[in-house]
UniProtKB/TrEMBL annotation:
<protein>
    <submittedName>
        <fullName>Cytochrome C</fullName>
    </submittedName>
</protein>
<dbReference type="InterPro" id="IPR006311">
    <property type="entry name" value="TAT_signal"/>
</dbReference>
<dbReference type="InterPro" id="IPR019546">
    <property type="entry name" value="TAT_signal_bac_arc"/>
</dbReference>
<dbReference type="InterPro" id="IPR036188">
    <property type="entry name" value="FAD/NAD-bd_sf"/>
</dbReference>
Length: 70
């Protein structure tokens, strides 16, 4: 069947989407202080698709953060 999606791909996509959606309340205050240098350490536990996406976007929206991915 062409164009079908596997259950594993569907669950990975859903987990990534939830991870990014959960970042909304965290990223808003970080980008509100864009002119200020943030000196914070953030540890993201879980290097799967959701954890890697969360770490990527945290670093993207606030480059001054020190993000560690475990």
């Amino acid at each position: 069947m062409r164009g079908s999606i596997s259950r594993r791909s569907f669950l990975q996509l859903g987990a990534s989407s939830l991870g990014v959606a959960a970042l909304g309340p965290l990223v808003g205050p970080l980008t509100a202080h864009a002119g200020q240098q943030l000196d914070a350490r953030i540890v993201v536990i879980g290097g799967g698709s959701a954890g890697a996406t969360a770490a990527k976007y945290l670093k993207h929206y606030a480059p001054g953060l020190r993000v560690t991915l475990l």
